[in-house]
Amino acid sequence: MKLLTLPSVVQRNVFELLGFKQLLIISFCSKRTRYLIQSLQKYRWKDIKFVKYSFEEEDNIYVNVRSENINEGFILSPNTLEQLVITPMDVFGMGSEIPICLHPIYYGGRYIYDKEQTQIVVQGIHDYLYQFFGSSIDYEVESIEDQLPPILKNINRTCIKVPENMTAEELEAYFTASPNQKYIQLEGDFNGNLCPNSAILGAEHLKVNCDGYGDQLLLGFRGKRLACTGSFRDSTIFQFLNAWRLNRGFHNLESVEINSSECNNYGAADPLKDMDVKQLDRPEDILHITWQVRRLYSSRNVISMFPAKTWKLGFSSRDYLIRDGDGEKASVSIKNHDVYFALWKGNSCEIENIND
């Protein structure tokens, strides 16, 4: 390859004329070519925020690379009746024996793969991109399919639709490969059942839409932020708040959001009545507490239009608890079907006058 014999200044100028998809294809030529691209174009990758794998209808897989200045990617499409034979190519470092090749029409923007080999193909692509970009960016998985996507290591954020009748053991096996994720979102037919000490409960931010009781989620959560839509027993809410107040767990916790819609009315049971609840000194004052979170976008189209950003969440309350031992304070609000809890430390707090 004559490009490799040119001076590095010329090589850099050539690479700068090419986009991500073109550079990716050139990197398939040899390990030396890949290392050269990584070395000379490293400055272009430093602003990349995430690589996302989206598993959508008809077995199409969208791979999106996103930063403030880069919004590129490619599509994996299963072979169809019109494409009975895949002529394997040595792409993504997987070797020519793996059934994947460039689409003959959408050069660089689409690949054809054998859907019977989805796990091997996606794993190979992820391993290649992880080596290509490094570990400093987020790698995300989103799926709207009624089956779990391929199991991948080094994933930071996951949003999946839990299939119907999936066991706790099957769900746990999926997340064991990538524990301690920054963000996990469970939708679909999740019934609230998890394995003891589940890897899911170690996520930094866990968002769950639960069809069953979420008691196990709340009492076993080891991360920072929990948001759950589902049913909770009144005794579980009391047990959680009391355990935090007595300094018996939840040491990483920063906030909890619970919405039970019409399932529960926590205000009627008043889980705070037997606790040493404090209130702000002045009756006209109320504390407004907020925090920032970044979740996965809900669709590939949204990703292509807007850069990654955060959402502001929060609530207002006069009530707060003080934790034994360290004196840490946390606001709490229990009204009708909603429960909110957030530490003052690590969140934004602002006292407002309700009469203004």
From TrEMBL:
Domain F-box per the UniProt entry, residue ranges: 1-48
InterPro entries: F-box_dom
Pfam families associated with the record: F-box
Source species, domain of life: Eukaryota
Annotated signal sequence range: none
Name listed for the protein in its UniProt record: F-box domain-containing protein
UniProt source species: Caenorhabditis remanei
